Amino acid sequence: MESGNIQNTTNKLPPKNKYDVEIAKIELETKKVDLKIEEQKANSKFWSDIISAIAKVTSVIGSVVSAILAWKGECKVTIPDSWMWIFLLATLGIVSIIAVFSLVAWRFERKGKKRAIEEKTLAPWSAATCGWIDLFYKEKGYIPALQPDEKETDPNVHSFEKRQSVAVTLGTAYDEWCLSRIAEMLNKDEEAAYYRCRSFNYRHIYNKETCFFHPKDKNGKWISPFDYRFSGGQGAREYYGENNGWVYRWDVPHNIADLIELMNGKEQFVANLDQMFNESLGKSKFDFYSQLPDHTGNVGQFSMANEPSLHIPYLYCYAGQPWKTQKRIRQLLKMWFRNDLMGIPGDEDGGGMSAFVVFSSLGFYPVTPGLPIYTIGSPMFSEVRIKLHNNKFFTIIAEGVSDENKYIQSATLNGKELNHAWFAHEDLINEGVLILKMGNRQNKMWGIDCPPPSHGLK
User: Which residues, listed in sequence order, are joined to residue 387 by a DSSP beta bridge?
Assistant: First the structure.
């Protein structure tokens, strides 16, 4: 579907020639909401509620530690003690996200507004209210990029962080999909439909000629000339954010099926993935990392060291080639997460990389946060039992697993043949048993029947 066919459900903005009116007038219009004392108080209370919730989460840390240590004892492999802190940090991150998600749902129900997207600016590292680029996004469905010789006109944009036009457009499309999911849970059908429609905004910046997400200016023109490795200045922040265009090419976690269609089908999708892992840096390491210091842990243009990359190795499963996921996962774990001086390959942030290691070592990963589906990779352990809230267990058995035997030959779930490379959260919480028979050769017939679900394709 062409981006122009996506229905706009927001109010119309003035003609383009009014986008460049005096900044003072725009600020006056867009910041009125902050003058309402009642809303300021409500906003303060919201954040105090979040802080309170996180404090409550910390009260159960003792039991979390005990559970992890118990889990370690039940694994039929030896897990280094140094890994326990990684597992703990990842668990804390997941539990905290659940607490915040619950509060967001509560606030959605109580207020009926989504301030983070509707009233706060989307400009990175800014707490200001909406500016003109936000109004532009609501009308046109993408954050406009500056041409190389164009001066910044929105005072909300941080002088170092820049607009990150592609990254923010992609991230906001996912955020709006999340809001549609929350609205569905709260039976708010109209709002769910509104945000579901807006979750396709990534299409507005997809360049069909290059098969990349490409920055576009306020007049709808692609930024040109363009290099997906290095355009965007320090950290590629003019257009992306810390990582380059090769990484953000895959940043549509809520709709992988649509991304495959945009890339003209599964065969080309897989070829693009393969190319990413094989593409050269294009500069010396010194020059590359001088500009992109957070784009580390490289395998080709893939970066193991930053959150936008973590789901990428699992995308082969969506295109019918899960054996390539199995190969890449084992390669990345062995290369970048060793129990030696290498440590971890980049910024741990909120536990994202540790969560990747934990999930991937167990043998699965949640590619789409907000969709209760786990994509199967290649487990490291011969048997793992995950203790559930009802004192039952979800068990993963990898028969014959070893460094060489990383490929899944066949699988059963609760005694029934499983020939797709994913399972549902419901399977996990209902005391399931997943048995994977491992081998040293790729089985190109397993896991190809049914790709993992991808929400929102239309």
Answer: 393
Instruction: Return the closest-CA partner of residue 172 out of 163, 159, 161.
Output: 163
pLDDT digits (tens, 9 = 90+) for 271-289: 999 999 999 999 999 999 9
- Strand order through the sheet with 373-376: 364-365, 373-376, 422-424
Q: Which two tokens stand for residue 283?
A: 């500069």
Residues in the chain: 458
Question: Residue 51: its pLDDT value, please?
Answer: 43
Question: Whole-angstrom Cα distance, residue 434 to residue 26?
Answer: 57
Q: Is 161 exposed, middle or buried (0-12, 13-18, 19+ CB in 10 A)?
A: middle
78 phi/psi in degrees, rounded to 5: -95, 120
**Average pLDDT value for the chain:** 82
Number of H helices and E strands in the chain, helices first, is 15, 12
Q: Give the model's pLDDT for residue 104.
A: 53
How do the residues of the chain divide into helix, strand and coil, expressed in percent and rounded to 5? 45, 10, 45
For the question of whether the overall pTM of this predicted structure is more than 0.85, the answer is: no
* Cα torsion angle, 323, 327, 332, 338, sign: positive
Given the structure tokens 């993992």, which residue do they identify?
452
- Tens digit of each residue's pLDDT (9 = 90 or more) over 101-142: 554 554 555 454 466 778 899 999 999 999 999 999 999 999
With contact defined as beta carbons under 8 Å apart, do 250 and 211 qualify? Answer: no
Residue 389 Cα to chain centre, angstroms: 27
Integer Cα distance of 366 and 358 in angstroms: 12
Run of H or E residues at 437: strand 433-439
